[in-house]
Design brief:
By secondary structure, this protein is mostly helical. The protein contains 16 helices and no strands. Helix 12 runs parallel beside helix 14 and helix 15 runs antiparallel to helix 16 (293-314). The longest helix has 22 residues, at 293-314.
Length: 316
């Protein structure tokens, strides 16, 4: 079994820090009756209704914000839904917050439903459009995600670094390195010290063979967040591509997986034609971890075969 250790991108959740910003279903439910209840998945609603009586939608929304701030997302959902039930018209703000809670819980079906409803109310709602685009990307609906995210960055007056970051990922997947670089730079103009964006920019440059540029971006990510494991892993792969193997093992080893580090660096060195060095790394991975023995031993067999073939070719 051959293990191809690739670098890693990071896809933002919409939405760290945005819960209080003002799958299958693709249309909003009927806006009359108790249809908002489809969004509730939590503790008994009767308990909340008895303990926290309200008289107006605004009071319920305020209660929802307070509950979200305290981390009680079941109650927050209940309060936002109760506010919607009391209101004459659906609130885009409340629906967006409901979508964010479900997105954070990886309940993408209900998040999709909420974001689409927000966009029915306000087609230029950039954060909801971004959330929907990220869900489409998670589902691997790449063409739809690209269309949705592109509409956000061109049609919304709300700057979305998340949308630019996701468009950069899509450009990388299409092998469009220059376009990806532009998107990541636009994301950085809105969020200059984001470790996530800098990691993705570094990985993009890694894919394009720009080792020095990749190293610079990944080191910037690690200055912003020294414990960012994705960036350490990708930096290790960049070092390995430059045949700085000791630095590579040390960087990947910062994630706490020494055997994996030796195996991954061995794989990169094998792909670079450094078969003897690769074999030594695979053997060290086997020595360090019985759990990694099968993977590393298979890679070692490949390295030995390639080393033998290369030696035979070199014989007069």
């Amino acid at each position: 079994m051959e293990t191809r250790q690739m670098g890693k991108r990071a896809l933002s959740g919409l939405l760290a820090g945005t819960l209080l910003l003002a799958g299958c279903a693709t249309t909003s439910p009927d806006k009359k009756g108790d249809e908002y209840g489809v969004f509730y998945e939590g503790k008994s609603e009767a308990t909340y209704a008895t303990a926290f009586p309200v008289g107006t939608p605004e009071e319920a929304y305020r209660n929802g914000d307070a509950a979200a701030q305290s981390g009680d997302y079941d109650r927050a959902l209940f309060e936002y839904i109760r506010g919607l039930d009391l209101a004459e018209e659906p609130s885009a703000d409340a629906l967006f917050k409901i979508g964010n809670i479900h997105y954070s819980r990886e309940n993408y079906r209900l998040a999709d439903l909420a974001y689409r409803w927000v966009l029915e109310i306000n087609p230029d709602h950039g954060p909801a459009g971004t959330g929907l685009g990220l869900i489409l990307l998670q589902r691997r609906q790449y063409a739809e995600a690209r269309t949705q995210l592109s509409s956000v960055v061109t049609g919304s007056d709300q700057t979305s670094w998340q949308a630019y970051n996701a468009l950069g990922i899509l450009a990388d997947m299409d092998g469009e390195a220059k376009q990806a670089e532009q998107y990541y730079q636009q994301a950085l103009s809105a969020f200059p010290r984001s470790p996530l964006i800098l990691n993705n920019l570094g990985y993009s440059r890694y894919l394009a063979g720009n080792w020095l540029g990749a190293q610079a971006a990944l080191q910037a990510a690690l200055r912003a967040n020294p414990s960012y494991e994705l960036a350490w892993r990708n930096l290790g792969l960049v070092h390995a591509r430059q045949k700085n193997y000791d630095d590579a093992v040390q960087a990947i080893g910062r994630t706490g997986a020494q055997a994996e580090a030796y195996n991954d660096v061995g794989f990169v060195s094998m792909m670079s034609g450094d078969y003897a060095k690769a074999l030594s790394f695979f053997e060290e991975a086997m020595r360090l971890s019985p759990a990694y023995y099968v993977t590393a031993s298979e890679n070692a067999k490949n390295a030995k075969r390639l080393l033998s073939r290369n030696s035979a070719r070199a014989d007069p």
